[in-house]
Amino acid sequence: MVKDPWWLYAYWEIQPAVEREVRNQLAPGEFSGLQSVLRVYDVTGREFPRQAANAWFDTPLSGLANNWYIHVNAPNHSFVAEIGLLTKASRFLALARSNQVTTPRFGPSEEIDEEWMTTEEDYWKLFGVTAGVGMGSSPSGLKELMERKLFSPGAFSPGLFSPVKRPQAQPFWLAVDTELIVYGATDPKAAVTVQGQAIKPKADGTFSVRMALPEGTQTIPVEATSPDGQETRTISPAVTRQTEPQKAEGRKQQAAGSRQKAETSQ
After folding, report:
1. Same domain membership, residue 127 and residue 218
2. Coil, strand, or helix at residue 191?
3. In sequence order, which ranges of the chain are alpha helices (DSSP H)?
4. Contact (Cβ atoms closer than 8 angstroms) between residue 125 and residue 197
5. Whole-model pTM above 0.70?
6. Host domain of residue 90
7. Which of 32, 119, 123, 144 has the fewest C-beta atoms lying within 10 Å of its C-beta?
């Protein structure tokens, strides 16, 4: 998975039978100094593995790790990773190969991703419960709630917070709200739900959703069911938002105290 233009995140699960099969290919003298590594291939502009990678590097793994952050330092490049065993003689035996990912370029994107676009009704059906108003509420009611939170009618557009209009009764003001992006990956044919609502993975198995994040702690169950329906896995991130506004008078007093301390020091 892509973390940002410079970092990737890999996670894996190797079945014992697969590892035994690969280890059986090792000669008796190759077990000494055997190391688990992630081999990361730069496949930008290539049809890997039909075409050779542009370059590759190994990241040694420690302990019983099943996930790893990888520093690629290469915006706008495509990568594939393999986890495997590396012998002292530099012989590499792959256990599994990842999907291909592309890091974003460093700078504003020239593309508008339609995956982020949704209708108002669909957006609120999925994320209304996160706003604390219940799954059965109407889109118009949810919209009114968020507009009240932002102090101004018309300040909310579906799936995106717009600049908030200035309240007429207040000469100076500030309004802040927060959104959350949940993303992950699984089998492309798996059935995925976020907070009980179905999400269709992309062709490479990745998925992402965007939701409002109100005050307090929110638990967001993400569930994936295998294509044959025989196995289900659930991960439930818990996210806390705590907004603590500071009074302007307090800041002024703090600033005055800092100036006085500075003058005394001089």
Report:
1. yes
2. strand
3. 16-23, 120-127, 139-149, 248-265
4. yes
5. no
6. 7-102
7. 32
